[in-house]
Design a protein that fits this description.
With 126 residues, this protein is α+β, with helices and mostly antiparallel strands. The protein has helices at 60-64, 90-108; strands at residues 8-11, 23-27, 31-36, 42-47, 51-57, 67-74, 82-88. The protein has one domain (8-107): PH-domain like, CATH 2.30.29.
């Protein structure tokens, strides 16, 4: 995460908004970073064009303390689906991520293809 220009940076918060955790989130123009750990630090990143879906959920305690959890569904092999937990201004951050995802898809000319049904293989009737 060092040396990059970030659009947004935040620590995972406790339910009472205190930032006493060892998980950090950062968003650049083309990537979303999740760094966690104290003794062993693990940094994961997902390219924004790989994000398939975003959703926001807020429990009663999160509403009281103005926090939210952003669920990210991605096609990234390492991270897959993950959550940005207890984020202040979560609705605005989700919208910011969504806009950057669309910009990156347009720039890279990436389209997401959704498949209906369980059977993805086509059968030959020869």
């Amino acid at each position: 995460m060092e040396g990059n220009q970030y659009v947004w940076k935040e620590r995972k918060r406790l339910w009472c908004r205190l930032p006493w955790t060892f998980t950090k989130y950062a968003l650049s123009e083309d990537r979303l970073f999740v760094t966690s750990g104290l003794f062993k630090t693990v940094e994961n990143e997902v390219r924004l064009y790989r994000v398939l879906d975003l959703s926001l959920s807020r429990t009663l305690l999160q509403k009281i303390f103005r926090l939210g959890t952003i669920r990210v569904s991605s096609s990234d092999k390492t991270l897959g689906n993950f959550e940005l937990v207890n984020i202040p201004n979560s609705a605005q951050i989700k919208e910011q991520i969504s806009e950057l995802v669309e910009e990156n898809r347009d720039r890279k000319r990436v389209t997401s293809r959704e498949f209906m049904g369980d059977d993805l293989e086509m059968e030959d009737d020869d």
